[in-house]
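Hi there,

I know you've been waiting on this one. I reran it after we fixed the sequence typo, so this is the corrected version. Both the input and the resulting structure follow.
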Amino acid sequence: MCIRDRLDGVVALAEGLPSLPKLASIRLDFRDLKYCKSMDYLIDTLALLPKLKWFRISFSKCEGISGATIKSIQSLLATQRSLSRLQLSIKHDNINSKELKQIWEKLRGLSNLKNFQFVFTNNKTRSDDSCISLTTALMSLPLLSSLELNFEKCTKMTSKAFSAINNMLVSQTKLTKLKLYYD
């Protein structure tokens, strides 16, 4: 589902999701939005779905993604341990590294994760610390076979981040599909 410009009706939509106990896959695209608590409420509701295997969340040109949103994503990852595919995309938003590191701490617990995609573009914040904590978390995933990392137009990445990515690739010998972007 794509939510663009307005968040009207999102709470009502979120309230209906728990009535879909067999839902295995969901995609949320937030575009051109200003932060609103209903975004967090929708993400929190996904934690109630017992069969969720595939989850994608994308923020594009969203202003003021808050710490509460990060906590909602953290909580979702802590609850949905059976996820096998996860995609997280953040475009045009200066989310800070400390907040991303909180998500990566929960990523470690997804031992069934086989497919992971992280798109982090047009970001002007220093991303080395977050990249290092991400790659450390990826090293702990025993079933990971498909990986895509996109750091397009992330202007403040240094050799530390690329060294961390290299170390992770050396350890993830089960990878059969790999895409790396950096511009």
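Quick highlight: The radius of gyration is 16 Å.

Best,
R. S.
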